């Protein structure tokens, strides 16, 4: 199975492309990434996680955070080692890179948020995305629930883990 056909990547595409729920997309993709044996920050999925995070920051007006994370996403997308070539298939990878470059430029000159879509080139993946979208309860794109989603979650366990990592120097 191509890694983009994994149910969590398909779900990510629904959140990213359909209702622009970048927070939820980040969450499901992080779950997928962490399920991969020996996962590391050099894995291509981290570029998508960063892209989703950057889009979330941009829409909320956090331009420094958006620029930083979009830039990291771009660096990871453009420096994929050959072992990850399959991650350049099935989606319109060239368009994705160009869209990320354009987003970075727009953020740097403080343009208003502009959503982007990850182009899907595979009919099979497109059908999976459409079926998955019908089976998810999606919040309305652009709603306060989507835009400020991090404020609605109990993230105490995540914050605790982050503080523990800071204390241990990792």
Write the layout of secondary structure elements.
Layout lengths: L6 H12 L3 H13 L9 H16 L3 H16 L14 H16 L14 H13 L8 H4 L8 H13 L2
Helix pairs in contact: 1-2, 1-6, 2-3, 3-4, 4-5
Can you describe this structure?
The protein has 170 residues and is mainly alpha-helical. It has one domain: Hyaluronidase domain-like, CATH 1.10.3450. It contains eight helices and no strands. The mean pLDDT is 87.
Characteristics of this structure?
single chain; 170 residues; mainly alpha; Hyaluronidase domain-like; 8 helices; 61% helix; globular
Order of helices and strands: HHHHHHHH
CATH architecture: Orthogonal Bundle
CATH class: Mainly Alpha
Helicity, in percent? 55-70%
The CATH superfamily appears as TTHA0068-like
Shape: globular
With helices defined by DSSP (H or I, 4 residues minimum), what is the helix count?
A: 8
Query: Any idea how many domains?
Result: 1
Question: Helix/strand/pairing class, anyone?
Answer: mainly alpha
CATH topology: Hyaluronidase domain-like
- Based on the structure, what is the oligomeric state of the protein chains? single chain
